């Protein structure tokens, strides 16, 4: 067990360090393109910080044959990403952080709820209906294809909305001796991505062995241990960005990551050859999905109501999120 935990720590460390470097190079690339802070967070940083989830989920379904582990990582990571809002609220210490954020995040938050709802409906439907199941195309579920379609449409909507609101003003990027041009940044980006990919594949094997050794089950291990580990890049990036005063970029990264994470299920379905992936999952995931929806709704309400009231310097919305997350984690442990 000691060697399993040591390998877990090493893999997780490589993922965190690699993702932090990716965010640095990715931010440089984004500045060269002149995108808005929210769009940078949603598209670029959201995608970069979701690379561990992408690789872990694909490895879990194709190499380990543990779809519950991979999907558990997806939704466990999503709810932990939302709890990052509570952590950065503590870090910035200036009162409710959601009072300072722009209401424009409601669009990406709403799309993430829609995507999660479709997955939750599909899992429940396939569980209840033993005879009638949702159709598939070459063993890829139409439900996961719908998820991907909505993700692409949603991303397009956000792009058009941000373009309309901010006009995508150009940002000048000051090149350093280390990052001389876009090509250099791109090469470094690819190299570090390969390290993150390799670490993610190895991490899925380690978590599968931990699940077997502890009898905790794939759903619980994926939702708690693996999810928190693969969300560490989002956490470290969000803290760094908020310290620089870019709250909207941090929130954009969180919701962008949550959107892309769910789209990862479609990609994983392509690698899972035993049939549609959402037809072969534990119903435990519906609890995690419901928790994600609840936490996201609290964020939306907080962004709309914009209350300045706080408890121990935390916004009341963030306090509510902590309570629901704690209850959800306890329920997951009880039913694992």
Taking all residues together, what is the mean pLDDT? 78
**Sheet bearing the most strands, described?**
2 strands, antiparallel
> Total number of helical segments?
13
Radius of gyration computed on alpha carbons: 19 Å
N-end to C-end Cα span? 20 Å
The CATH H-level homologous superfamily: NCX, central ion-binding region
**CATH secondary-structure class:** Mainly Alpha
Count of β-strands = 4
Provide the low-confidence segments as ranges.
none
* CATH fold field value: A middle domain of Talin 1
- Globally, the shape reads globular
Proportion of strand residues = under 5%
Number of domains: 1
CATH architecture classification: Up-down Bundle
Give structural notes.
This protein is mostly helical and 336 residues long. The protein has a single domain, classed as Up-down Bundle (A middle domain of Talin 1), CATH 1.20.1420.30. 78% of the residues lie in helices and 2% in strands. The strands form two sheets. Strands 1-2 form a two-stranded antiparallel sheet. A two-stranded antiparallel ribbon has the order 3-4. A hairpin with a 2-residue loop joins β3 and β4. The radius of gyration is 19 Å and the shape is globular.
Which features characterize this protein?
two-stranded antiparallel sheet; 13 helices; globular; A middle domain of Talin 1; 336 residues; mainly alpha
